[in-house]
Design goal:
Layout lengths: L1 H26 L8 E11 L6 E13 L2 E2 L7 E4 L9 E9 L1 E10 L13 E4 L4 E3 L2 E2 L5 E11 L4 E9 H4 E5 L4 E6 H7 E5 L3 E8 L4 H4 L1 E8 L5 H6 L13 E4 L5 E8 L1 E12 L5 E11 L6 E3 L4 E14 L2
Parallel strand pairs: 1-11, 9-13, 15-22
Antiparallel strand pairs: 1-5, 2-3, 2-4, 2-6, 2-7, 6-10, 7-8, 11-14, 12-13, 15-18, 16-17, 16-19, 19-20, 19-21, 20-22
Length: 324
């Protein structure tokens, strides 16, 4: 009797697990051609460390939700990412989807032609107006798959996600007299783009009250998850493309008046590091120093809440040393 009872208990447990597995599978799938909820996809950008760059353009020909083509996207669309800094966004697409959830978005890029049919499709525009075509280093793939948090689509509601291109991580200088640029490797490009649920993010705004760009140099504020910043690692360059500050959540340039905004940061605790750059004759910005900052807020434990803004009042008391 005990053996039979155990057998039936085991069978019951297997049945429950099977049902739950099916439920979980259904729950984590979404049909982009379905209806019941709506999805909105916006794009934003973090800055590039190049003073000679006037614009960075990408042409999107297709959007996929969990690997399935989303017909709501009417492409191609060409977007100047460099215009989308400090919390600015542009709507890439919006439309109906089925109820459910997803955690993966795919952008299909056209390297060859822009939305008007002109060449190239993805490119850097220099200050003199010339274009530098961008392609993925060592890989011809055009589908860029981005993993993110689980996004739930409820009946009759619109869920907004923001895709954040970190251009500093996404583009590398090729070197040489012509100073050409390219996208980093496919894997590095994937990790340079993140998407977040807009309603689950907050922002960090601040002002360096005694900042002077002519004496301090151009500055960039980097946001890291609390306790994750390792100066030697982050300033040395990582991966095949030698990306600096690779593990930052986001970054933002400091404006000429000392103000800055780091936007679309998931709720949590963060640390802030501000770095200055010196501009070479070629227009390239090279890492210079870390700024030593005064603040009433602990800059190694900055709390960010969803749908809120964390404000910092800062002053520069010195430098923390040069960067080799």
């Amino acid at each position: 009797m005990l053996v039979k009872k155990l057998k039936w208990t085991a069978l019951g447990l297997i049945s429950v697990l099977a049902i739950n597995a099916c439920d979980m599978e259904d729950d984590t799938n979404i049909d982009p051609s379905g209806t019941g909820g709506r999805l909105k996809v916006e794009m934003t950008d973090a800055p590039i460390d190049e003073a000679s760059v006037q614009g960075v353009f990408v042409t999107v020909t297709e959007v996929r939700v969990d690997g399935k083509k989303w017909e709501a996207f009417q492409g191609p669309k060409t977007v100047n990412l460099l215009e989308l800094q400090g919390g600015k966004t542009v709507t890439l697409t919006e439309g109906d989807v089925s109820m459910g959830s997803f955690d993966k978005l795919t952008l299909v890029l056209d390297y060859e032609r822009d939305a008007n049919g002109n060449a190239p499709g993805c490119y850097i525009q220099r200050q003199d107006g010339t274009k530098n075509k961008l392609v993925v280093s060592g890989n011809a793939r055009t589908d860029i798959e981005i993993k993110g948090p689980k996004v739930d689509i409820a009946e009759g509601q619109t869920q907004t996600v923001v895709m954040d291109f970190d251009l500093r991580k996404a583009i590398k200088e090729q070197g040489g007299a012509s100073k050409d640029y390219a996208f980093v490797t496919y894997g590095e490009l994937q990790s340079s783009i993140r998407f977040v649920k807009k309603e689950s993010t907050g922002s960090i705004t601040g002002k360096l009250n005694n900042y002077n760009a002519s004496t301090n140099g151009k500055a960039v504020a980097y946001v890291y998850t609390k306790g994750s910043f390792k100066q030697n690692t982050e300033t040395s360059g990582q991966g095949e493309s030698q990306v600096r500050f690779k593990n930052s959540v986001t970054s933002t340039k400091v404006n000429s008046d000392g103000s800055f905004t780091a936007a679309f940061i998931p709720e949590g605790e963060y640390e802030l590091h501000v770095v200055t750059y010196r501009q070479e004759g070629s227009g390239q910005l090279n890492l210079n120093t870390f700024l030593d900052l005064n603040s009433e807020t602990n800059l190694n434990a900055i709390s960010v809440k969803a749908n809120s803004q964390t404000n910092l009042s800062l002053s520069i008391k010195g430098i923390l040393g040069g960067i080799l």
